[in-house]
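Example record

The entry below shows one chain as it appears in the dataset: sequence first, then structure tokens.
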Amino acid sequence: MNNLKKIGLSALAGSLATFSVNAADFSVSGSASLTYDDTNRGKGVNGNAFSMGNSLGFNASGETDGGLGVAVYYEIDDDVMDDYDMTLSGDWGSLKFHGSGGSTAFGAVDDVTPNAYEEAWDIIDTDGTATSGSPTVIGGGSGANMFVYTSPDFGGATLKAALVPSGNAAAADTYTDFAIAVSPEAVEGLTIGYAISNNTVAAGGKDNDKSNMYIKYAISGFTVGAQAVDADHDTASSSQESVAYGVTYAVNDDFSIGYSYHELEFDSGASLSDQESTGVSASYTMGGMTIAGAMNEVDNMDGTPTNDFEGYEFNLSFAF
């Protein structure tokens, strides 16, 4: 009897040990949201400008015996497996592998000027595809099967690096970019950032080097920011540069308003005009409900003179 009891207790202890090692936290995230957009984003059915949020995120995370953090994320968006990634983390920082979706180090800071809802160049989408008929922006590279490393915080400084291996459809060669953000402990509310990227454009094997500098400062309810981005292409006529400014003001803990401006210059001669975008945005939160929106305008979109558009978007969302 005692032997049987020992065997049973040993089996139970082994089972509990195995459970402890493999235990993970699971969660499902989503939101109840309703959006009205007057510039085609929500006009997928008979010109109806209303749309509803339709994505679900599935998260799982745990830790190995050696202290290595492991997390995985899957998103189902509009009945399709959209973004998914895996993250390893420890005292050394984190390494994320984006199987699909995600931003590079440069792409994550392509425009970080303050706004209360969306950037000045966003929302405008004349054909509803979000990839054409929209303002031009100097962004980072992208692609599936991408690695992104984020360092620990070193006295207010954080380094991020991204790698998209060669053979990806988005580039003819390996793509890399780097970004650093510094929030000095001696100056509360100040953030300074710099990012660079390099990739070989598939058409003709030309290099396209980009640089990105920005500064933000928050004080007494105000947050102001400025940013300059440059794309130096081997083909001079394909080079671009942009400047952006933004300011937001927190009227109170629940209500914020903002104004933003973005200007992009094309180095292709007199045939293209500078693209100028402006936006006014606001956000109000009450309990678990948030109402936010923006009214944006773009002149000379994609450098085409008189190609001027304006639009607005409003979103109602609930957190629970």
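Notes for this example: The chain has one domain: 25-318. Residues 25-318 form a domain with the Porin fold (CATH 2.40.160.10).
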